[in-house]
Amino acid sequence: MTSQVTRQGPVLVASDLDRTLIYSSAALGLTMPDPQAPRLLCVEVHEGKPLSFMTETAAALLAELAADPATVFVPTTTRTRKQYQRIRFPGPPAPYAICANGGQLLVDGEPDRDWRRAVARRLAEECAPLEEVHRHLLAVADPQWLRKARIAEDLFAYLVVERALVPDEWLKALTRWAEERGWTVSLQGRKIYAVPRPLTKSAAMREVARRTGATATLAAGDSLLDADLLLAADRAWRPGHGELADADWTAPTVTALHEAGVLAGEEIVRCFGRAVATLAA
């Protein structure tokens, strides 16, 4: 996988994390007989317990990719900075990371204040305030299935729910209400996110590309909140599970993989490596 830096600049690799590169025990999707299951590496511990995993093969390939001078690996997530910093990827630390769905740009682990101020200005101009959306979520959520309500980085809100008990019509009504106010609703596992439409991973990816001089971008993701990121990249991949797969969503520059679960994460890293080698040749 290792390649030489080209005169055109590095290749930026921006990847979603949960259910794209890393997987909880519930999301592993191991359908083969136990003796044939891949060896797993724990990459996140929370409250003293293992939380997220990659296959050992995926971890080794990612370490090689991140160490390649022809690439800039950028973890890209809806997680808050605190949640992101629990993850311990193999290989060298990522010089840039995108958190809070593009609301936080970390440079060597520290938030970039100029980027945060620019995001705040855009949100104030283009969509309803967070306080209004959070109040509405609390007002319409049913205590029978609501487990937690959270605000992330003072940028967006989400609910932790018992997914099987949430009526589809309720989710559709919330989506319509949010869209009228410039917000997007996304269901990911047991979490229902309400995110300002201008708050995007793609905008942050473009900023990192500008700063690093990258002239090619690769991306991967599984949820509706990743769609803008995939569309903004030169080449992108989505796994065979998640919101995008459920909607049979694709685009000319997006490859829909058949693999699902943690093996999809391994295949995504392989795709990144092959694409970098081709671009840097």
Structural topology:
Blueprint: E1 11-15, E2 23-24, E3 40-46, E4 49-55, H1 56-67, E5 71-75, H2 81-84, E6 96-99, E7 104-107, E8 110-111, H3 113-126, H4 130-140, E9 146-152, E10 156-161, H5 168-179, E11 183-188, E12 191-196, H6 201-212, E13 216-220, H7 227-232, E14 235-238, H8 243-246, E15 254-256, H9 262-280
Parallel strand pairs: 1-5, 1-13, 13-14, 14-15
Antiparallel strand pairs: 2-4, 3-4, 6-7, 7-8, 9-10, 10-12, 11-12
How would you describe the overall organization of this protein?
The chain has 281 residues and is α/β, with parallel strands linked by helices. Helices cover 33% and strands 26% of the residues. It is built from 9 helices and 15 strands. It has helices at residues 56-67, 81-84, 113-126, 130-140, 168-179, 201-212, 227-232, 243-246, 262-280, and strands spanning 11-15, 23-24, 40-46, 49-55, 71-75, 96-99, 104-107, 110-111, 146-152, 156-161, 183-188, 191-196, 216-220, 235-238, 254-256. A 5-stranded parallel sheet has the order 5-1-13-14-15, sandwiched between helices. The chain has a 4-stranded antiparallel sheet with strand order 9-10-12-11. β3 and β4 form a beta hairpin. The longest helix has 19 residues, at 262-280. It is globular.
